[in-house]
């Protein structure tokens, strides 16, 4: 067989040649703009030639700080297809972390949305080595104290619309990179190779997974700075899929209207987005009959929400699981043919799990005593291996914690049922190890949050002399219920649902649970608070 | 990204782990047999261990001479997943070519269906180096003068059902090989690597191509000795697809009943098969409502047949194009989203073309003056490049004719329309070069065969002093029309349909057109006959 490399260049060339009429719909600060793949391809080549003129060469890192729009999609191909590395930066991180990331990656050029420019202005003294700042805007470049600032559209107007992309790169050459938050310390970088991105895009196109195809219209709500918007932009360009990019500061109403107007068939995002959308379509009427799949990842979607989309609105909902280190698609809640006969309730149970392994990857689940049984009960840490799984963190000593013996240890504790469907039950660091057994903090939290008086709840481990660790529940009551519910009420509520040794030793009432910038529980902080409270008692 | 190799081993392991209950339905000489993937996996491992005991090692060639059945499917994985090379042999070739192939490949072991054993018996003195003959049968091994003959089922009964497959092979290592007939001389061998087969199977799973998936039931009519049954067995195992293998000596009635009884969703074969099936379902009633796709390749399907399947029977029909050298899937007649609005007739025109390039490959079409225009008119030779395209013929000097500058020159002359859809118009060697212009023999033949008095017709080039070459039509009249139709009648029939210089210089009436063993016109022989006839005149 020929030794032709798997490169991103073939994706854009296919879109240009076979799908020049297909559309990219981009929502920017000034409204909806439309580009054909032909126009977009020319703009992308202009960008590549402009970057080349600015001195960007093979292996150089080019950072982006941008929302989901056509210019960001141009950067997605212009940078890697000319041999450089597309470094998408999470604009929601703290300024300190953003400057760490820019310096650690060694970004040579930054592409910045105009509304994000002030953030970079503020940290300019802490970042080194950036030779050019290119502002992506429909209008003028805002006032800035930065030097070497360029207007994206001006650069494009001077660019070459038939600039040649690289077809001679090694398929293992870096094409992209993305940093992921760490529990402690600075974010950790993951490098994506051309080979990894191409194979991952093929996996997204499989009829057995998300089946992204030319007949789709894809709307990635998941940010393009978050694991390449789950790879959707790459698959969509390759397959000639119409794309709808929702831009900055969208609301559930804006999303619903875009989906209706553009006849979106597939969309992807985190549960929070879908809760917002569900609320929106419950309040206002939209025709979302074109939607064939809502892809949901990032964290587990509540069963009730899945049920509402599927049964009330007839919109198929699909759980997926992955992380920055896995490109991200690793597990998907696709049903098997013989599941078609299951009662609705069991189908929903299946959909509430993360799903089965995607073709092309390998998996093992390591429990207390080696690989766990496929019984839906025994808990173990999920480890993954495959051609779109990272092998290390970029120049980071913390690699050795997660990457061992050729496997990525995900830090996620899961069970796996008889059919091979995985359910996430906890993070390894949040798991409570009591008397040699494992207790899932997530299972307890889900049970607590189903209590009618509870607004939110988290369960953490506290050290225990005899049992090593014991669970303690931290509960925020709904305002109307405060002072009316006791610790005993809550424990009595849990007792019928769990084994005796799972029941928390204590219930602490709090006014709020500390959270990360993306709304996840900050369990490390919570554990410290609980320790302090318990000491005070 | 991790450097995990793309190997066939991951396919069978996925089927065993995730789809142990799914079925393989196998029609053999003694009737229908059923195996779950779990049972089939154990049998496959038993076979691998048996081959190991017989001395088969990494890189060794193991030949198969067999129909489509479960044992052949076991060989499909047992051989490559233990590092050896699955060499499928076309049992329809001449005995001389079969012994050439066995010797040229250097097969160490042969797996032979019992009804094919007599053929090998006859050529045993001309084959060297085969150390063991394994007979695949439900019953006893037939009487044979061969030595070192083993009974497949006896070997399996002593085999190890948990034999370990190789996960440490180089992804570029050979996994399979297949010989293709040459115009002159011996067949030419193509080697398939693990990487090539895995990527090709992914391509088959794309929603944009054939979309083979777990929910399918696949029936490959195309023989497993013919380009790996177009890769369907590999994709089906990987995705956990139920397989129906039709075995030896099937009739259209047997196929139709299998499709009905097993609720087949996707099937694949050459036009001759589908003409037979169409005839069968026109005569007798079957419920084929489960069929979502008939894949058709090998040669062009008549438009009328496509129309009959689609419009009369509601069965979607899909053209595909490929060859032994291309694994084979290279081009597929998938429509684009905006084709949905075309009138039925234009949709049919589209379906009658071979289609557009499959994601993952590159293509160019070289005409008289370089790359051809995308106008559906200019003719050129199709050249292909990509990770599942062969790079050479196995130890064969003829490689340099077809493989040049990193491209495979297919020998097929095509046009390509504005949308990138390819239509095969001729073989390069059959194209008529008249006065510096190209004339498609196939176009003329199709026109002639639409004449109500003509049974079959072929058009060949004869040398011409002024024009280099000129077309001559060879026509076989229907019995009832013989003596009633003149040369002028036929030329008058053609004239309104073609440019003046396309009209054949002569029409020769013949009693039959010489054909190959698979029913294709033997144009080389025909050209010689025509030369002789013209000389005689």
UniProtKB/TrEMBL annotation, chains A, B:
- The answer to whether the entry has keyword Lipid metabolism is yes
Q: Name one GO biological process term.
A: fatty acid metabolic process
Concerning Pfam families, the annotation shows: AMP-binding, AMP-binding_C
Q: Locate the AMP-dependent synthetase/ligase domain: which residues? A: 14-394
**InterPro entries in the record:** AMP-bd_C, AMP-bd_C_sf, AMP-dep_synth/lig_dom, ANL_N_sf
Q: Which domain of life is it from?
A: Bacteria
| Record GO terms (molecular function) | ligase activity
Ranges for domain AMP-binding enzyme C-terminal come to: 444-520
Keywords on this record? Answer: Fatty acid metabolism, Ligase, Lipid metabolism
| PANTHER family given in the database record | ACYL-ACTIVATING ENZYME, BUTANOATE--COA LIGASE AAE1-RELATED
The family assignment reads:
Belongs to the ATP-dependent AMP-binding enzyme family.
Q: What is this protein called?
A: Fatty-acyl-CoA synthase
Organism of origin = [Bacillus] enclensis
């Amino acid at each position: 067989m020929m030794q032709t490399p798997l490169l991103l260049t073939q994706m854009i060339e296919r879109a240009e040649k076979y799908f020049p009429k297909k559309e990219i719909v981009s929502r920017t600060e000034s409204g909806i703009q439309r580009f054909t793949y032909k126009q977009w391809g020319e703009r992308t080549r202009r960008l590549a030639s402009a970057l080349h003129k600015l001195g960007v060469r093979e292996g150089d890192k080019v950072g982006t700080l941008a929302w989901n729009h056509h210019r960001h999609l141009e950067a997605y191909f212009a940078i890697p297809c000319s041999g450089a590395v597309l470094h998408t930066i999470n604009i929601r991180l703290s300024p300190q972390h953003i400057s760490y990331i820019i310096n650690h990656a060694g970004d040579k050029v930054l592409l910045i949305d105009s509304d994000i420019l002030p953030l970079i202005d503020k940290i300019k003294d802490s970042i080194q080595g950036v030779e050019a700042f290119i502002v992506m805007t429909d209008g003028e470049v805002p006032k800035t104290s930065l030097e070497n600032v360029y207007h994206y559209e001006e650069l494009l107007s001077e660019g070459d619309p038939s600039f040649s992309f690289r077809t001679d790169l090694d398929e293992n050459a870096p094409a992209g990179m993305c940093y992921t938050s760490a529990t402690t310390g600075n974010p950790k970088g993951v490098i994506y190779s051309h080979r990894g991105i191409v194979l991952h895009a093929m996996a997204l196109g499989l009829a057995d997974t998300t089946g992204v195809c030319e007949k789709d219209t894809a709307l990635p709500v998941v940010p393009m700075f978050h694991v390449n918007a789950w790879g959707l932009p790459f698959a969509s360009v390759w397959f000639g899929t119409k794309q709808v990019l929702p831009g900055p500061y969208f609301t559930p109403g804006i999303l619903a209207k875009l989906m209706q107007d553009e006849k979106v068939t597939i969309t992807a995002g985190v549960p929070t987005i879908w809760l917002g959308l569900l609320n929106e379509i419950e309040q206002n009427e939209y025709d979302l009959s074109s939607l064939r799949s809502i892809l949901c990842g990032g964290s587990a979607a509540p069963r009730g929400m899945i049920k509402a989309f599927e049964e009330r609105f007839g919109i198929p909902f699909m759980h997926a699981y992955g992380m920055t280190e896995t490109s991200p698609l690793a597990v998907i809640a696709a049903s098997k043919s013989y599941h078609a006969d299951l009662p609705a309730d069991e189908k929903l149970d299946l959909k509430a799990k993360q799903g089965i392994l995607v073709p092309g990857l390998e998996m093992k689940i390591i429990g207390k005593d080696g690989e766990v049984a496929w019984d839906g009960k025994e808990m173990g840490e999920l480890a993954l291996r495959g051609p779109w799984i990272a092998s290390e963190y970029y120049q980071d000593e913390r690699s050795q914690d997660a990457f061992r013996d050729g496997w990525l240890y995900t830090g996620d504790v899961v069970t796996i049922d008889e059919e091979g469907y995985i359910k996430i039950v906890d993070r390894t660091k949040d798991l409570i190890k009591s008397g040699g057994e494992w207790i899932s903090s997530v299972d307890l939290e889900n049970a607590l949050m189903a209590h009618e008086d509870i607004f939110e709840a988290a369960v953490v481990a506290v050290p225990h002399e005899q049992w090593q660790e014991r669970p303690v529940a931290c509960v925020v009551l709904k305002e109307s219920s405060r002072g009316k519910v006791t610790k005993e009420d809550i424990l009595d509520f849990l007792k019928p649902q769990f084994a005796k040794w799972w029941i928390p030793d204590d219930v602490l009432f709090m006014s709020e649970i500390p959270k990360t910038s993306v709304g996840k529980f900050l369990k490390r902080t919570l554990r410290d608070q609980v320790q302090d409270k318990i000491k005070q008692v």
